[in-house]
Amino acid sequence: MSHSTRCARNRFCAAGAFFIAASFGAASEARADPEGGRSVTLGGAAIVKPKYEGSDEFETIPIPIIIPKFSETVEENGSAITEVRKRVNFRGLDEIRIRVLGGERFHAGAVTGYITKRDQDDGPLLRGLGDIDGGLVAGAYTGFTLGAFQFDAAILEKVTGDDSGPEFRFGVETTQQITERTRIVARVGTTFASDDYMQTYFGVTPAQSRDSKAGLAAYTPDAGIKDVFFEIGGTMDLSDRWLLKAGGRYGRLLGDAADSPVVATENQFSGVLGLGYRFNLPQR
Questions:
Q1: Residue ranges of the alpha helices (H) in the chain?
Q2: Taking 80 as the threshold, does the pLDDT of residue 24 lie above it?
Q3: Going from the N-terminus, what domains does the chain have, and what CATH number goes with each?
Q4: What's the number of CA atoms in the CB half-sphere (13 Å) around residue 193?
């Protein structure tokens, strides 16, 4: 990974610390501090993911966790920071959802995030193909709840760096409170990718084919279902001070994405593990 790529990722990770903290801390805030009071939870999380879509190698991205709580009592938890945390859902570096409208039954909002750069040195199949810039993500989502299940759809598109076209993600999830201290979320879904997206990340142009160190043939994929995936994650209060978040994701590339010559494996695994500790702040 180049120095400039590391710096770009680190800047985004630092800027996104509050957003992963939102997902990390909102479910645990009341349990972790039942008597109220001002506090800050500090910790770190590590995201492990394939180096690129289709890679059989992995990279680790560290993210700090910072969860401020400025209210003196539980009743005063209507602060702006608390309200923001309730509205943010961290689904990954490229999909941070921010609820704008609705409540428990129906909701809609914005999507942001960051798609990391794909470097031609990320794997032997990519050498000679050139780099694909990383960039900020913008989009929108909507969802509704039916019984114990939440159905949702989102559109995401990289709006800086190389133009790569949109993705459309569809999923259904359920949340279960296993114990007073433990909450589990399970999710299944699929991704539909546009022509431009498929060509950017899974295609090989004639020029790239000529430059390919692996001798890849030219390949032009069509728009279609890119993958299906299953995710499971949990948040646990280990004590009144320690908070734990862990999750894993299995995705399988399908169709033209799976058939791409840049794909080393159709099976894509990723995960996140985070730990935080709550410090009391002086009372006013």
A1: 3-15, 17-25, 29-32, 80-87, 195-202, 206-211, 255-258
A2: no
A3: 3-280 (2.40.230)
A4: 24
